[in-house]
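Prompt: For my understanding, could you write out one protein's sequence and backbone structure tokens?
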Amino acid sequence: LDYCGFGLFSFLQTVHYWDSSTFSLSEITANLSNHALYGGAEKGTVEHDIKTRIMDYLNIPENEYGLVFTESRGSAFKLLAESYPFHTNKKLLTMFDHESQSVNWMAQSAKEKGAKVY
């Protein structure tokens, strides 16, 4: 889900559920690529529990795929651009949302790594 960096709770949620909330929101200040590849959520945390529920629901094996939560579409594209091995696979095809500033940034990053952007 993409909240464009504005993932705010609704008024109803804050009034009725704020006191009973068992988790807190926190910002991860580590390098996004390193955190996604090597950090991840520790067992017993809300992030880990949510990831596990989503992966189980979609029947996605955790030993083959990973799930990363980002604050926005821009952060997701930045993570992809920084992590994808454009030096070995030199093509980037943008078919969806090609006029987005985030996609343009990813395309520029791919070009800098030697990829051809279509």
User: Anything to note?
Assistant: The chain has a mean pLDDT of 74.
